């Protein structure tokens, strides 16, 4: 589902619309509607937190807002990050892409660059609109020119994991057609070995979904609550086809 508090323009299957139905299923037809506590990007799968009453919902929303929720994602990426484990800490800003079809994308706004004259590290003037963004990552397995990564976003900037992987580490998420290129809107280009393992023609890659999954959320409400959600069937099938299957907790 595209997960929003209310359906924006062009949003079908907004989760807010199904909350009353969910509540009735849970509480024998006489419940208050459930309260949504946070958001997931439209194409991301995984754990969602819903509260049965408004007070608890407010408490949980505050935990998300003040970054007191530990989030762990799994992603299948193209390529392998080097080093295999680390922290990406590069600010992110939204920019308009000037191409035959103008569109907006989130992108990196680094604080440093290499000087073309002497190759020295030069500090760049800070972009006022950029938000600081921090993502921890760890390689769990690699095969078929792809990797299975565990990710922990410390901050919550829009499309942060997708941008840090694609533009920071050069490992875009499988099925991320938006951030696999900068200047154009086009389906992701997959390596031959990946296409072969997925039994897929490049011309059909446009139908490949985003392989980004919110695997675990941990939050403290009097006691630690650990919420885990296994990846959806399409994600699990891809892991098997790419031989990225590992023993997971």
Automatic annotation (TrEMBL):
Domain of life (superkingdom): Eukaryota
Molecular function as annotated in GO: pseudouridine synthase activity; RNA binding
InterPro entries (UniProt xref): PsdUridine_synth_cat_dom_sf, PsdUridine_synth_RluA-like_CS, PsdUridine_synth_RsuA/RluA, RluA_PseudoU_synthase
Subcellular location: Mitochondrion
Gene3D superfamilies reported for this sequence: Pseudouridine synthase (3.30.2350.10)
Domain Pseudouridine synthase RsuA/RluA-like intervals: 29-166
Cellular component annotations (GO), alphabetically ordered: mitochondrion
GO biological process: pseudouridine synthesis
SUPFAM superfamilies in alphabetical order: Pseudouridine synthase
Catalytic activity, reaction form: a uridine in mRNA = a pseudouridine in mRNA; a uridine in tRNA = a pseudouridine in tRNA; uridine in 5S rRNA = pseudouridine in 5S rRNA
Keywords from the UniProt entry: Isomerase, Mitochondrion, Transit peptide
Coiled coil: none
Keyword field contains Transit peptide: yes
Record carries keyword Transit peptide: yes
Stated family: Belongs to the pseudouridine synthase RluA family.
Record's protein name: Pseudouridylate synthase RPUSD4, mitochondrial
Species of the source: Pluvianellus socialis
